[in-house]
User: Fold these one by one.
Assistant:
Number 1:
Amino acid sequence: MQQKQNAIKFSVSLPRPMMDYLEQYQHTHELPSRSEVLFEALKALREKELAEGYRLEAEEHSKNPTLMLEGTLADGLETLDGTDW
């Protein structure tokens, strides 16, 4: 988990079954705290969203391979011969 000095403390209300699952997950995976369980859950959620974004981008690219060069991917890049993309 991130360093404690960067941590922000907040309160979370969960239904009992979710809290039971959180504590069971903590015990099963030998995590030191409930915060660590939430950190891992948020990390997994972020990774899932990134994967979905990459999947959608790849799908769009497969439909029109030149689209990425016309968009922001080419921002800041120059061709070797000085012509436009």
Number 2:
Amino acid sequence: MDKELTFKDNYGFTRQVTVMTRGPGNNKYVKKLNRLNVLNIIKEREPVSRQELANLTGLTSPAITGIVR
């Protein structure tokens, strides 16, 4: 069963994330979640740098570059 978690990020924005709790996730699902998370942050905070996106999401800079290209 998945869990919904809500927290405040370093910039004071409230974030809601889904945490998978039923075993290992598949790669495509995780990539899709990361992409949706990044796109939502871009919509909320435009303009936003790749470094800010990395800090907000916990993803690496190369991962952010791969998502936004």
